[in-house]
Design a protein that fits this description.
Layout (H helix, E strand, L loop, with lengths): L7 H6 L1 E2 L5 E3 L13 H8 L2 E2 L5 H7 L4
Length: 65
């Protein structure tokens, strides 16, 4: 049985904690920042955890992490 391939785009976007949670970055922080408040852009710098409904899918895409 051959090894499963890692989805490289997903591997760059997600990382995993020791307890098994999936960490992700926040969206909407790459451009058009002048229209967003300073408070909002500051909040977007912090990461977040992926929703539990998509964790199973992410685990399949990134099997060896």
């Amino acid at each position: 049985m051959p090894k499963q391939k890692t989805h490289r785009a997903s591997a760059k976007r997600f990382s995993f904690t020791k307890t098994g949670k999936v960490k992700r970055g926040c969206a909407y922080k790459s451009h058009l920042l002048t229209g967003k408040t300073t408070k909002r852009t500051r909040k977007l710098r912090k990461g977040a955890y992926a929703d539990k409904t998509v964790v199973k899918i992410i685990r399949k895409l990134v099997p060896y992490k």
